[in-house]
Amino acid sequence: MKPKTVQQIVFVLGLLVVTAGVTSPFCWLLFCSLKPKAQLFTGLALPTNLTLENYIALFAHTEVVRFLSNSTTVAVVVTTVTVFIATLGAYSLVFFRYSGRELIGRFILLTYMFPGVVIIVPSYNIMSFLHLTNNLLGVMLVELVLTIPFAVWMLRGFFMEIPRELEEAAIIDGCSKMQALRHVLLPLALPGIVAVAVFAFIFSWNEYLFPLVLINDENVKTLPLGVAGFMGHLYVEWGPLLASAVVSTIPILILFTFLQRFLIKGIMAGAVKG
Question: Cα Rg for the chain, rounded, in angstroms?
């Protein structure tokens, strides 16, 4: 057997091992969510008969639909606003010339480097002053503070790969700055924009800490916060908890399935130039 063939076989086997290691937790979670209550504590054993009773209990006896609606609202709004502001901000940092441009770019990166836990108390005080606690708008505003700096910095690196001559040619042909951005630059920056959108959506969808601090009302709890309520002091509702974990993972899997090509290209381009 040729050395090259052996290397290929070892490479494929290595990929299979890594794939199995990465997907096994989700597979175990899925199988456990399909187990009857009597078999939930049988360890790694596969269920002898699959059942949807945990999912039925989840949607029939909990407020998971409301939690899903709240999380979807927050994630969609945060993603939309992040993409809009980050696109304009990155475009400004790359294609406009004004004093302090580089300083602003570095300041944006510096704000992203601060861990989110640092701004918990100030965020709560500000939202309380604005009467935005127990309000999804308050959660959105705080999450935007964390998503926008990274998104601007990442898109800045992506816009830097686009030749400035393309914008100049569009302006010579009669386009305004915004028309050149819309018709020329945005299609070229699409992979980076998609990557930023996926990042913002995943961050907002999975965020637990800030909703925990800002929300007490059951009617406005997001999915991570609502699912945490299944774990009480004396009793844990394991069936609905496992089922809700699977349900909360599905939107992320769908995003990665359809957008992974843009996501990988956008991350790599931002990493090289940013």
Answer: 23
